[in-house]
């Protein structure tokens, strides 16, 4: 794995626990997680995530496009999400929602973003009526020029000035 302390890598004990959980969920013992195994891993960790969002996250973590997620791919992504800078997290998360790789979020991608935020908010016990108002205000802030699209630049700029964006996307 190499020295990733500069990225805030997991401790040896945390990596061992993650590897143990990974192996337990690798039901076909292939050494990689297919989509169903991946979903089982995140079923308790990312409540409120839709099957489509889970597929998007799976595809984004599958950096070698093999159709499976290796332990290396998983641990690298989780290290980034848990200990990376806010900008790194925002870039990673943008990629999971930008399913067509266009460089901006539109239509269904924004709907998926909103649903993810609502799901995480609900799992954190946030009041649904207040969440809708907050998310609508946040969308206006994210779409700075009001064109119905959220560019990566708009996403990062607004996300860095609104820490609750990351909280509502990954529950931290």
Quick recap of the structure?
The protein has 172 residues and is mostly helical.
**How many strands in all?**
4
Distance between the termini: 25 Å
Q: What's the number of structural domains?
A: 2
> Order of strands side by side in the largest beta sheet?
1-2
Number of helices: 9
Structure notes:
The chain is mainly alpha-helical and 172 residues long. The protein contains 9 helices and 4 strands, in the order αβααβααβααβαα. The protein has 2 domains: 11-82, Orthogonal Bundle (Recoverin, domain 1), CATH 1.10.238; 86-170, EF-hand (Recoverin, domain 1), CATH 1.10.238.10. The strands form 2 sheets. Strands 1-2 form a two-stranded antiparallel ribbon. A two-stranded antiparallel ribbon has the order 3-4. 19% of the residues are buried. Residues 1-8 have low confidence and may be disordered.
Topology (SSEs and partners):
Blueprint: H1 12-25, E1 32-33, H2 35-42, H3 51-61, E2 69-70, H4 71-83, H5 86-97, E3 104-105, H6 107-123, H7 128-142, E4 150-151, H8 152-161, H9 164-170
Antiparallel strand pairs: 1-2, 3-4
Helix pairs in contact: 2-3, 5-8, 6-7, 6-9
Features:
172 residues, mainly alpha, Recoverin, domain 1, 2 domains, two-stranded antiparallel sheet, 9 helices, 4 strands, 5% strand, globular
């Amino acid at each position: 794995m190499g020295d990733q302390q500069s990225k805030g890598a997991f401790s040896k004990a945390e990596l061992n626990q993650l590897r143990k959980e990974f192996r337990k969920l690798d039901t076909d013992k292939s050494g990689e997680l297919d989509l169903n195994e991946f979903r089982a891993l995140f079923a308790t960790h990312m409540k409120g995530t839709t099957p489509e969002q889970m597929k998007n996250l799976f595809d984004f973590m599958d950096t070698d496009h093999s159709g499976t997620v290796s332990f290396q791919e998983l641990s690298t992504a989780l290290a980034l999400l848990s200990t990376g800078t806010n900008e790194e997290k925002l870039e990673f998360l943008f990629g999971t929602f930008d399913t067509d790789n266009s460089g901006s979020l539109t239509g269904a991608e924004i709907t998926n973003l909103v649903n993810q935020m609502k799901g995480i908010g609900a799992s954190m016990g946030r009041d649904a009526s207040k969440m809708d108002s907050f998310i609508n205000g946040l969308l206006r802030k994210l779409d700075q020029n009001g064109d119905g699209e959220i560019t990566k630049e708009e996403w990062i700029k607004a996300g860095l000035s609104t820490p609750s964006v990351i909280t509502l996307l990954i529950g931290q």
